[in-house]
Each structure stands twice: as structure tokens, then as C-alpha cells.
UniProtKB/TrEMBL annotation:
<keyword id="KW-0560">Oxidoreductase</keyword>
<dbReference type="GO" id="GO:0004497">
    <property type="term" value="F:monooxygenase activity"/>
</dbReference>
<keyword id="KW-1133">Transmembrane helix</keyword>
<dbReference type="Pfam" id="PF00067">
    <property type="entry name" value="p450"/>
</dbReference>
<dbReference type="GO" id="GO:0046872">
    <property type="term" value="F:metal ion binding"/>
</dbReference>
<feature type="binding site" description="axial binding residue">
    <location>
        <position position="454"/>
    </location>
    <ligand>
        <name>heme</name>
    </ligand>
</feature>
<protein>
    <recommendedName>
        <fullName>Cytochrome P450 704C1</fullName>
    </recommendedName>
</protein>
<keyword id="KW-0349">Heme</keyword>
<keyword id="KW-0503">Monooxygenase</keyword>
<comment type="similarity">
    <text>Belongs to the cytochrome P450 family.</text>
</comment>
<dbReference type="InterPro" id="IPR036396">
    <property type="entry name" value="Cyt_P450_sf"/>
</dbReference>
<feature type="transmembrane region" description="Helical">
    <location>
        <begin position="12"/>
        <end position="31"/>
    </location>
</feature>
<keyword id="KW-0479">Metal-binding</keyword>
<dbReference type="InterPro" id="IPR002401">
    <property type="entry name" value="Cyt_P450_E_grp-I"/>
</dbReference>
<keyword id="KW-0472">Membrane</keyword>
<keyword id="KW-0812">Transmembrane</keyword>
<dbReference type="InterPro" id="IPR001128">
    <property type="entry name" value="Cyt_P450"/>
</dbReference>
């Protein structure tokens, strides 16, 4: 994502704009307080969006600090009030109890629509309900499950081969970049039925698509901090001109793919598509030939499934390197569950990671979940309040306020997890028999909760468990530089800033 470093706060124009905005903020707050009626009270003001901007590179640390102090607080913003909560009863209320009063709203829709159209991530109401219904059904079918497992296995074996080469030649690996490419290939093939091969870059068109996709999502996110984006879009300049160009590349690639699939379908008429497991073919069967609708489906699912799993797996690798005893315990579990003594080929090893073997990997499941508690792929998630309301903690919110729950901050709250909240301890997710024990989704919010809970949760766990079982079963990992500070980059998903350099060593080989 473009950084905020370009903003020099000492610049006279910037200072003038800041002063004007601050005056506006204070006037707004005074006005709201004057208008207080019926004894309504509002959450404490913990700062302004300018404090957030000043803390941009350590945003989640800053917001965790505020959450520990206030649990729920407001930040003043010239355009709207921003309420941030880490209180599970408030989270349950906005995500489930009064679900219809909190949604994407026009604010998110306008920011996202050029890239994601009317896809499941951008819409509310009936448009959302219909897509949710069809997608939930497709995600629960055995066909999609079997098809996706075969793709995860293929890509996990590819990944193992790359890691093996690095281990043999004693080279370091930037594992986050590898995982990003590998999850892109996996989700793209599950969604479109086509091999993108960003792992090896053999598909030139695929590479152009992949780069355009990353640039478009970064530029779309940039709209959230760029108050001038609409003017720039109108004038077709700067970041907006670039966004227009990259979304054009995306659209051309995706429409071509859709048209080819439609032609294939027309030629073979019956039988052909019903045998294909990918999401595009399934939607073509259910919804017919609406290319724009299909484009939106494709891009929304690719964005949902790519960075989230890659970022989680990257933090997971980091945790395993930081805690070698946990790494060994998880590797031992993989070895036992797959009955592996010796690895002769990665493709063979991958086929031993069966559904039954994955079921047995409770410790691995717990370690991945513990990673998501401390490093949730979506660190903050914003909703818009549609009408005045009072939250369960007794404080009010108003129509148009932005109300966010904070998975990152919540994962670190002592009042939710106890005094060892900041420790990485997979055991907290296991019962006395070593079986995985889930937590309330209103405390562990990494996948959201309520009617809009992540639709790909099981899918994501399956992929993450297959990938990590293969990596842990075949290799041992260490950080390249133990002393290097590893932190996040502030963007929509919680990526490791600058990637993660690691060294790999073979296990159980001839
Ligand atoms: C570690 C992996 C993942 C995490 C932590 C995660 C987390 C989330 C979160 C927090 C949301 C709510 C976002 C919002 O408010 O718009 C969400 C929604 C969603 N996720 Fe995931 N996700 C993951 C992987 C996936 C995968 C692999 C897929 C699909 C293949 C997927 C599909 C979706 C969809 C379709 C929605 C929208 C649901 C709706 O609005 O009804 N997710 N996910």
C-alpha cells in the first residue's frame, strides 16, 4: 500500500489544513455534546484521526493501547465519528443482534466499487443476501471441497520443491512472497478453473493480471486515506489514473476468461460444466451468462482468499521460528498423523496428508488459531451505523458513525484472554484430551461473526493446514536473522513489513 511518509506535517499548507480540520472537529464535538438529549452518552474521545495518522506505521499498537485503556472509544474525524470497540458484548450486538443496522454502507461501497463492483464484499441488503445464499451453498458442496483439496495438494508440493532447493543449496527464502504467490495460484484456480502459475511465472498474461490485481487493491485501499480521490478520479490523475489503468487490465483478463468458458459451455452443451468444480462454472450454471456479475464474483473471491491465508501462514512461520519447541511439537504431530518415517517424494508426502490425517492434527489447528488471535489477517473491520442506536455497554452511536471491531487489539486484551494474553500459547485452544476447543466468535473475531462470518473459514483452515503440514513435515525452519525486528505493514491485511527471510533444513530424508 502507498505509504503516508509523503505527508510532511511541518509543511505550512498541511499545518493550515490540520488546524482548520481540528477546529471543525472540536466544533462538531461541542455541538454533539450540546445536542445531548434523553441523557444519551457517547463513548470517550481517545484522540483524533490525526493521532492515527501520526501513528500510522504502528497503527495497531496505538489502537491496542487505546482499547486496553477504554475498551470502546471514539476518534474524532472531520467527516464522521469513528467508534472502535474491543468489547465482546458490543461486537456481538453489531455483528449479530442488530446486524441489519450495521453494514458496508455507501462509504465502503463507493471506495470499493471500481475494483469489486457489486460483489459480496461491497453490498448490503438483498444484493448481499442473494450472493451469500448461492456462495454458501457452493462452498458446502463435496465437489468444491474435493476440487480445492486437489489444488492445495498440487501447490503445496510445488512449494515444498522450491523450499527443498533452497535447503539443499543453503539459500535463504523470503517465505511471505512465496506464500502469496502460492495462495494466489490456489484461489485463482479454485475460482476460475485456470492455472495462473505465479509461483514460476510461466503464464505471462497471468503475471500481468496478478501484478495488476495487487496494484489495484493497494490503490483502492489508498482511497481510505486520500480525501482527494474523487477529484483525482474526475480529473483522471495520479493514483486514480493508475487505478483506472490497472482495473482495465483486470477486466480484460477476466472478461476474456469468462467468454472462453461460456463458449466452451455452448460447444459442449450438457455435461461439460456440471463436471467442473471451479466457482465460475458453478455460478455460470446457477446464474447464467451475466459477465459483469461473474466478474464481480471472481474478483471478490480472489481478494478474499489470497492475502488472508498467505499473511496468516507467514506469521505462523514466524511464530514457529520464534518458538522452536512448538515447531517440533507440531512437526511430531504431522509425522504421527501421516505415519511418515521417510520422505522420498513431496508428491507422495502430500497424498499422505489426507482428510483423516488433517482431522488428527489438533495441535497444528490450535497453533494456527493462536497465530490468528495475535496476528489476525483483517486487523480492524469497519461498519457504518444506519440509524441512531445504543450499544450494550450503555453508550450511544449515531446514524453515519463508523463502528469498527478490532481483531488485532482484541487478541491482546487481558480482560478477554487473561494475563498471558500477549503470549503465543497454542495450548489455550486445547481441552484436557488435547482436542481443539473453539472460543466465542465475539471474542476471537479473526473471521468476523454473525450472518456475515467469513464464508471461506473452513476452506482457509484446510488450505493452511495442508500447506503447513507439508512444510513442517518435510522441513525445519529458522529465522535468517534472529535480531531483526519483525513487524506489520499498515494495510487492510496484516502483512509482515518487508517479508520474512528464513532458512530451511530437510527432515526425514534418505
Ligand atoms: C485466514 C484466512 C481468512 C481470514 C482471517 C478471513 C477473515 C474474514 C473477515 C474478517 C471477513 C469479514 C470482512 C468484511 O467485513 O467484509 C471475511 C469475509 C469473507 N471471507 Fe474470509 N477470511 C479468510 C479466508 C477466506 C477465504 C480463503 C475465502 C474464500 C475462498 C474467504 C471468503 C470470504 C467471503 C466471501 C467473505 C464475505 C462474507 C460476507 O460478507 O457475507 N475468506 N473473511
Amino acid at each position: 500500500m502507498p505509504s503516508m511518509a509523503f505527508l510532511s506535517l511541518s509543511h505550512p499548507y498541511v499545518s493550515a489544513v490540520l488546524c482548520a480540520a481540528l477546529t471543525l472537529l472540536i466544533a462538531k464535538e461541542v455541538l454533539r455534546n450540546l445536542k445531548k438529549r434523553n441523557g444519551k452518552k457517547y463513548h470517550p474521545v481517545a484522540g483524533t484521526v490525526f493521532n492515527q495518522m501520526l501513528n500510522f506505521n504502528r497503527m495497531h499498537h496505538y489502537m491496542t493501547h487505546l482499547a486496553a485503556k477504554y475498551r470502546t472509544y471514539r476518534l474524532l474525524n472531520p467527516f464522521r465519528y469513528e467508534v472502535y470497540t474491543a468489547e465482546p458484548c458490543n461486537v456481538e450486538y453489531i455483528l449479530k443482534t442488530n446486524f441489519q443496522n450495521y453494514g458496508k454502507g455507501l462509504y465502503n461501497y463507493n471506495n470499493l466499487k471500481d475494483l469489486l463492483g457489486d460483489g459480496i464484499f461491497t453490498v448490503d441488503g438483498e444484493k448481499w443476501r442473494e450472493q451469500r445464499k448461492i456462495s454458501s451453498h457452493e462452498f458446502s458442496t463435496k465437489m468444491l471441497r474435493d476440487y480445492s483439496i486437489s489444488i492445495f495438494r498440487k501447490n503445496a508440493a510445488k512449494l515444498a520443491n522450491i523450499v527443498s532447493e533452497a535447503a539443499t543449496s543453503n539459500n535463504t527464502l523470503e517465505i511471505q512472497d512465496l506464500l502469496l504467490r502460492s495462495t494466489m495460484d490456489s484461489i485463482f484456480q479454485v475460482v476460475c478453473g485456470t492455472e495462473l502459475d505465479s509461483m514460476f511465472g510461466s503464464n505471462q498474461e497471468g503475471k500481468i493480471f496478478s501484478d495488476a490485481f495487487d496494484t489495484s487493491s493497494a490503490l483502492t485501499l489508498y482511497r481510505y486515506v486520500d480525501v482527494f480521490w474523487k477529484i483525482k478520479k474526475f480529473l483522471n490523475i495520479g493514483s486514480e489514473a493508475k487505478l483506472r489503468k490497472t482495473t482495465k487490465i483486470l477486466n480484460e483478463f477476466v472478461f476474456k476468461l469468462i467468454n472462453t468458458r461460456i463458449q466452451q459451455m455452448d460447444i459442449s452443451k450438457e455435461g461439460f460444466e456440471s463436471k467442473r468444480g471451479d466457482i465460475l462454472s458453478r455460478f455460470l450454471q446457477v446464474k447464467g451468462y451475466d459477465s459483469t456479475y461473474l466478474r464481480d464474483i471472481i474478483l471478490n473471491f480472489v481478494i478474499a482468499g489470497k492475502d488472508t491465508t498467505a499473511a496468516t501462514l507467514s506469521w505462523f512461520m514466524y511464530m514457529l521460528c520464534k518458538y522452536p519447541a512448538i515447531q517440533e511439537k507440531a512437526a511430531e504431530e504431522v509425522k504421527e498423523a501421516t505415519s511418515t518415517n521417510k520422505i522420498s517424494s513431496y508428491t507422495d508426502f502430500v497424498s499422505s496428508v489426507t482428510d483423516e490425517a488433517l482431522e488428527k492434527m489438533n495441535y497444528l489447528h490450535a497453533a494456527i488459531t493462536e497465530t490468528l488471535r495475535l496476528y489476525p489477517a483483517v486487523p480492524v473491520d469497519a461498519k457504518i451505523c444506519f440509524s441512531d442506536d445504543t450499544l450494550p455497554d450503555g453508550y450511544s452511536v449515531k446514524n453515519g458513525d463508523m463502528v469498527s471491531y478490532q481483531p488485532y487489539a482484541m487478541g491482546r486484551m487481558k480482560f478477554i484472554w487473561g494475563d498471558d494474553a500477549e503470549d503465543f500459547r497454542p495450548e489455550r485452544w486445547l481441552d484436557e484430551n488435547g482436542t481443539f476447543k473453539p472460543e466465542s466468535p465475539f471474542k476471537f473475531t479473526a473471521f468476523q461473526a454473525g450472518p456475515r462470518i467469513c464464508l471461506g473459514k473452513e476452506f482457509a483452515y484446510r488450505q493452511m493446514k495442508i500447506f503447513s503440514a507439508v512444510l513442517l513435515g518435510c522441513f525445519r525452519f529458522e529465522l535468517k536473522d534472529e535480531e531483526k525486528n519483525v513487524t506489520y505493514k499498515t494495510m487492510i491485511n496484516l502483512h509482515i513489513d518487508g517479508g520474512l527471510e528464513i532458512k530451511a533444513f530437510h527432515r526425514f530424508r534418505d
